Amino acid sequence: MRLLEAIGRALLRVLEELGRFFQMLGQTVGWSIRPPYDVPEHFRQMVRVGVDSIPVVFLTTLFTGMVMALQTFHGFARFHAEGFVGSVVALSLTRELAPVLTALMVTGRVGSAMAAELGTMRVTEQIDALTALGTEPVQYLVVPRVVASIAMMPLLVILGDAIGMYGGYLVAVQLLGANPITYVENSFQFLEVSDVTSGIVKAAVFGLIFSLVACVRGYYTEGGAEGVGRATTRAVVGGSLSILFADFFLTKLLF
Amino acid sequence: MQDRSTPPGETPKIRAEDLHKSFHGKVVLDGIDLSLAEGESLVVVGPSGTGKSVLLKHLIGLIQPDSGRIFVDGQDFWALSDRERTGVRKKFGMSFQEGALFDSMSVFDNVAFPLRRSGRPPAEVRDRVRECLAIVRLENVEGKRPSELSGGMRRRVGFARAIAHQPEILLFDEPNTGLDPIMTDVIDEVILEMKEKLDVSIVTITHHVESARKIGDRVALLAGGRLLFEASPEEFLKSDHPAVRQFVQGSAKGPLTVEFEREEKKAVSEVP
């Protein structure tokens, strides 16, 4: 009995969370199309999500590309297929690794900050103050963050694709002595436009997911400083897990 | 109650009818009726933790009641659309307990916030911000961050922000809690001045009896989720209603404590 109760309660909580998520999604869409449009705030958030994340994305994808090349080179050498290292690195980066790893890193970097910021504003009544001043808090706080995340994630992933492939090239050519010309040729030989675009679509969806999860977490924070901490943790954990779930279904859907 | 505060034929600025609100099964408001006439200053006093702030947040629509209605200038607040509600909220200026200043902005930007959001030109914004800061007796603080200010200054910046867009109704949530006696008095004087200069209706929440006497045209006692008693400040202080007597005299024994202890016992027995 107790077990059933626990399962039921957990299920209810998940449903409640999903409800909040979709309710906030609806509100965000609704408020994003209504004036006033706070263009400077949108740009400010784009800088925070996009420009400020470049170093992290650079390092993440560079090393991912390098490791990919290193691993596949040794594996493929066993059946003399070293020539395909470039193809494997390019395909796995554009379709999978660059979008997912970028999204996870940005969730940790930006999602946590969003949840902490909104959470602090909630517990210090700043969100109430916004409402009291005749400004809709979802429109002022959530819309620019979500829009900026959806807009910047694809750009970060394009950057990540390029850097990751360069990382693979570096290792294969400089370290393992592959032929630079055939490596580059192989990289692009099997790469199709749809590989890159599917990664970009994923990136935009991931941007929506992590920013909305973080904003919901922050927006509904309860219980002072401890509550802000909890909201931040849950924003990162919930955001990352949702990204991995969504990644599976998107991959299934897109191919 | 409504008859006494509002002359017949005149719409009260705010009228609340039979408000009920519970959080997680705990009843906070248990049937509140209240009305505020144009130009009137109502002070709601009561022990801490009796839902005074919750009541105030109901009046401006930050919290939706479980049942009951709120009328602002005769309009049923929760029957309006989102956009209309935002419009009605602009009639209000609210000062929050700790100021609730936007800590990422300077004092100037805080006070300018409602003005800029409604699209006023920069020159007008600048003049209005100066004017509002002068009303709350602050100068040379425009460039400072909220974290650099004292508690009393933060409250007053909050006041300035609340009055910037020329609201018709001002709400003060514990304006002088946690301040020293002198600053408490300064805050009371600033509120009185605003009342005289700005032609507004005011609701103040406080547990300072002395402040209530100074700034209120009418004082009401909130306890146990109900308004137990309301009267002019003089009558309030002289009243022999047992709960009012206990609150005014600040005594540990009386009907308010009994209620409080019952609540506490219930809370303890509810813990599994």
Structure description:
Chain A has 255 residues and is mainly alpha-helical. Chain A has 9 helices and no strands. Chain A has one domain. Chain A starts with a helix and ends with a helix. The mean pLDDT of chain A is 92. By secondary structure, chain B is of the alpha/beta class. Chain B contains 11 helices and 10 strands. Chain B folds into 2 domains: 194 residues, Rossmann fold; 69 residues, no CATH class.
- Mean residue pLDDT of chain A: 92
The largest pleated sheet of chain A is described as: none
**Number of β-strand runs of chain B:** 10
Q: List the strand order in the largest sheet of chain B.
A: 6-7-8-3-9-10
Multimerization state:
heterodimer
Mind telling me which CATH architecture of the largest domain in chain B this is?
3-Layer(aba) Sandwich
Q: What is the general shape of chain B?
A: globular
Beta strand % of chain A: under 5%
Number of domains of chain B: 2
Amount of helix of chain B? 40-55%
How would the blueprint of this fold be written?
The complex is a heterodimer of chains A (255) and B (272).
Chain A: H1 2-32, H2 39-49, H3 54-77, H4 85-123, H5 126-132, H6 137-175, H7 180-189, H8 193-219, H9 224-254
Helix pairs in contact in A: 1-6, 2-6, 3-4, 3-6, 4-6, 4-7, 4-8, 4-9, 6-7, 6-8, 8-9
Chain B: H1 2-5, E1 14-23, E2 26-36, E3 41-45, H2 52-59, E4 67-72, E5 75-76, H3 82-89, E6 92-95, H4 107-117, H5 122-135, H6 151-163, E7 169-173, H7 181-198, E8 201-206, H8 209-215, E9 218-223, E10 226-231, H9 233-238, H10 242-249, H11 255-270
Parallel strand pairs in B: 3-8, 3-9, 6-7, 7-8
Antiparallel strand pairs in B: 1-2, 1-4, 4-5, 9-10
Helix pairs in contact in B: 4-5, 4-6, 5-6
